[in-house]
Design brief:
CATH topology of the largest domain: Serine Threonine Protein Phosphatase 5, Tetratricopeptide repeat
Order of helices and strands: HEEEEEEHHHHHHHHH
Structural class: alpha+beta
Radius of gyration: 38 Å
Strand content: 15-25%
Distance between the termini: 121 Å
Shape: rod-shaped
CATH class of the largest domain: Mainly Alpha
Number of helices: 10
Largest sheet: 6 strands, antiparallel
């Protein structure tokens, strides 16, 4: 007869199995699993908050997250003080809690607690109290940025405009304001980037177009600068343009920039046309050196007039 394959389970193995069963039974009793007896008693322990809560606030929405050691409901009570008064309830039983809700006021401090109740109704387990501050809207940031810009604090204004750009990249005002603040700070590269973004969002925005024309002219990009100057002057109301945040910047400045662009492009007759719109008394004649006021060339005489008009415009 051949030998039996597999492990024998004769009497010699019985003590081993008996000890293993004893260990398993003890473990089940200690953990309350299986078997009956005291291990199957009712759940009377409320859930424990093991992590959080943490709040992430935006302008008018808030997300609060926390973790419990067992599946439980999610409730947030919140308000303008520790009496709360408002609540958001999610009845689903979860371990990872995430409550997203809308609040009424922006730029405001709110107080809150998180609460959880388990499937057996134990609880609520209430977190420590916390606070969150809702953010200002992009529109508010732009309005505040322009107010600071008008006071002459261009660095502070640029910081607010940058925050507005991050908050809402489609809001033209953040880019226009950022461009003008950067322009006043002498940062032409950033000014150009912001103003180009502004005109890409709103090609009819005169403030952005004027700012971009100024930047491009200062960079020697006369053809593109002239394009934007013409677009402003040809737009509805462009002939009487005045920058809302600095009344000294007007359509006269746009014409001075355009005249200078034309000189650089050697379009001298077009430059003279802009000069004479600004000052009809200018009687320069390209064919009459006697009208050049002692300058060796017509271009030099014309440029001198443009500089004079620029000084008048700067006031």
């Amino acid at each position: 007869m051949g030998r039996s394959s597999g492990r024998r389970t004769g009497r010699a193995d019985f003590p081993v199995h008996r000890r293993a069963c004893g260990v398993l039974a003890a473990a089940m009793i200690l953990t309350g699993c299986g078997g009956g007896g005291n291990g199957n008693g009712p759940d009377t322990t409320p859930p424990t908050i093991t992590q959080g809560p943490t709040a992430t606030a935006r302008a008018d929405t808030v997300q609060i997250c926390w973790t419990t050691n067992e599946a439980a409901t999610s409730t947030i009570r919140y308000g303008l003080d520790t009496s709360y008064g408002e609540e958001v309830i999610q009845a689903d039983l979860v371990v990872e809690h995430e409550v997203l809700f809308t609040v009424m006021f922006v730029d405001t401090t709110y107080y809150y607690v998180a609460e959880s109740v388990d499937a057996a109704g134990n609880g609520p387990t209430v977190s420590d109290g916390g606070t969150f501050v809702t953010l200002r809207t992009a529109g508010q940031l732009v309005r505040e940025g322009w107010a600071i810009f008008e006071s002459g604090d261009y660095s502070g204004a640029r910081a607010l405009f940058l925050e507005a750009q991050v908050r809402d990249a489609m809001l033209t005002g953040g880019w226009t304001g950022g461009g003008w603040a950067s322009l006043r700070l002498g940062d032409r590269t950033q000014a150009r980037s912001d103003l180009e973004q502004a005109v890409s969002l709103d090609a009819n925005g005169l403030d952005a177009a004027v700012g971009l024309a100024v930047v491009l002219a200062s960079l020697g990009e006369s053809a593109e600068s002239a394009e934007w100057c013409r677009a402003v002057l040809e737009a509805e109301g462009g002939g009487t343009y005045q920058f809302a945040h600095d009344a000294s910047v007007t359509s006269a400045d746009v014409r001075v920039i355009l005249a200078g662009d034309y000189v650089h492009l050697l379009e001298l007759n077009l430059a003279l046309e802009q000069v004479q719109i600004l000052d009809p008394s200018v009687s320069l004649d390209p064919a009459d050196p006697g009208s050049w006021g002692g300058y060796p060339t017509f271009a030099a005489a014309l440029f001198a007039e443009i500089e004079r008009l620029a000084r008048i415009s700067d006031g």
